[in-house]
Design goal:
Distance between the termini: 32 Å
CATH superfamily of the largest domain: MetI-like
Structural class: mainly alpha
Mean pLDDT: 83
Number of strands: 0
CATH class of the largest domain: Mainly Alpha
Radius of gyration: 23 Å
Oligomer: single chain
Helix content: over 70%
Number of helices: 13
CATH architecture of the largest domain: Orthogonal Bundle
CATH topology of the largest domain: MetI-like fold
Shape: globular
Largest sheet: none
Amino acid sequence: MTAQQVFWKVMFYIAVALICIIAIFPFYYAVLTSLESGTAIFRVNYLPESFNFDNYIAVMNGRNFLRSVLNSVFIATTTVVAALFLAVTASYALARVHFRGRGLLLMTILAVSMFPQIAVLAGLFELVRFLGIFNTPWAMILSYTIFTLPFTVWVLTTFMRDLPVEIEEAAIVDGATPWVIITQVFLPLLWPALVTTGLLAFIGAWNEFLFALTFTSSETMRTVPVAIGLLSGASQQEIPWGPIMAASVIVTVPLIILVLIFQRKIVAGLTAGGVKG
């Protein structure tokens, strides 16, 4: 290995280390802050000075926080199930069925994801009120599914296009219906893409704030981001930064665990269609 190769290899590892530090440091500092209390919260420190779990105890004993966690779990899980069911059936039609206007339909689906949330908030609010689901979990599930579908449909369509045509043809010869082909032939092969899209949809629904704040009016219907956002005092000095950081850590750790468990499937799903051969 030449000196130039060694230099660029060292530079590469330095760049990777910097990226990791920049990505991890905010969460690390949130953990440090969550373990502090009183004026110690406002002192800048990069190493833990104490391990005081009073903030975590206060958050867990707080009014309706655990209920908010359960609401988020139910809403995010239901959104993932609904989005994947609709996306799998839609991607089969878009990837395997040849019909006029298929490209235009794909572009229209993609265009839906380009609208910012605030641009469609008023229309969605009127739809939610018309359907009579205001201040219910179904209001968030409907809105989250609408914004999740474009991404899931595009990823699954790309993945399904790469599946060998011979598999489908063999199933058709055996008399399989489209539903049987989707559920028993393609679905087992779609696991990497399903895990990727499902996990990203779950994270999006788990962290969403605007719709959750707009479509709920009672404390028992709030999701975790709204519950954390409402942990505030009348002034800057009265904001409970310790409990806020503790609550943030509590709701972030499950997402980190899920990503670590399914990281290989996530990489496989995101790189689907990137290599031909």
